[in-house]
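Lab notebook, bench 4. We co-purified these components, and the gel suggests they stay together. Before we commit to crystallization screens, I want a quick structural picture of the whole thing.
Request: model the full complex, all chains together.
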Amino acid sequence: MNETGFRRPPTAQEAVLAELRRAIVSGQLKPGEQVLQDALAEQFGVSRVPLREALKILEGEGQVVYRPHRGYFVAELDVADLREVYLMRDLLESEAVRLAVSLLTADDLRALTAAATDVDEADAVGDLVAMAAANRRFHFILIEAAGMPRLARLVRILWDATDAYRSLYYAEPDHRASVHDEHHAVVAAVRSGDADQAVVILRQHREHAVEAVTRVLGG
Amino acid sequence: MNETGFRRPPTAQEAVLAELRRAIVSGQLKPGEQVLQDALAEQFGVSRVPLREALKILEGEGQVVYRPHRGYFVAELDVADLREVYLMRDLLESEAVRLAVSLLTADDLRALTAAATDVDEADAVGDLVAMAAANRRFHFILIEAAGMPRLARLVRILWDATDAYRSLYYAEPDHRASVHDEHHAVVAAVRSGDADQAVVILRQHREHAVEAVTRVLGG
DNA sequence: GGCACGGCGATTGGATACAATCTCCAGACG
DNA sequence: CGTCTGGAGATTGTATCCAATCGCCGTGCC
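Here is the predicted assembly.
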């Protein structure tokens, strides 16, 4: 029996997929850059076959684009793409949160509060990676509480699509402060069962992120 | 220069992907069934490599599920999944249509009307496959007119997810009749610029499909 | 009878080798 | 001077082969 949460990927393609995600989020693979299969396969210590299968998954999620006989390229987002992704997130997440508020268990609420605290603590220590991870946990506790796994999966893909750019937002101390305030406001609204209020705050929350990233991309 | 709209797939994986989609829609591959790679590869006259890459695309779209070392299985939808997919379609398509109505060109409107006519004609001839294709064209003219390619892509994936079950709806003559009425009501609403009205009709349109398929699945 | 163990056949996962295609650039031609 | 042509090299696409894993079933033990 494996008591730990750890579980090594049972296949090379899954391991490579995780590595590719890391490389994209961390900026090792930059938007627009071609993914050279031979080089990456060697770097990961696998052949090109599992690498290509992992790339196909990312292609399906829109994180890379594929051009036959030319290869895979890390997806680039312009401002229009960004606004589109956030519009879709608004539509899907708002619905999820509305449903979630009436379904939240005491455990969910505890986990939500704990995640908000984790965000604050990571912020205090200056660990931006941990902060992003905790932030993601916070939001997905709400979204998954709606009990709609397919919706949650789509939202996850939309988050991933902008991962490469989200770090720009967290880099600013001001933004990190407003993240703190907004998270706790969401917890308060959810705790009192006010779904509409939670939706409004979360919408502002996203809007702030869009504005910040738009400034960077457009300027 | 290639004047025809034809373009043979430049790679085997794309050809196989198209064949797999056909097989799923037509019911040759039934929900829950395992996709035996050796058999299918031989049937398509290719090796397993391009087949596996095509399957990875379908996995990303949720049309097949993958279990490591066990293989790929055609996705099964229960009633909850169906409702979830249609809820997401409602959220995304309603927004797209609202935007589209104010952006529609005269050409779009002509194409929309033509597609509605095509649906009617296919219905009259009893060609259900052509009817489904024309129906799809009709709806995506509207959705794509919103000028949001990513949203259109997601909606397309959601449509594909229920393709295996949609044929159940078209099998009923009564349903085909209401499709006719609803399409023309949508055209009228769109033509007069009444986005809200179009959204309402389209929502009923979807609701009818959900009810019909739910009856089949649940009974 | 029930349950753990282990080998066998079937199927998938991955590495290697080769074929097909694209990109780029030099050189011929108009 | 611009355009077309035609390799050479690099990169991707696919086939084939072998290794790893799973599920099943018979066996032996308790």
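The CA atoms of residues 110 and 187 of chain B lie 10 Å apart. Worth comparing against the SEC data before the next meeting. Chain B is about 75% helix and 5% strand.
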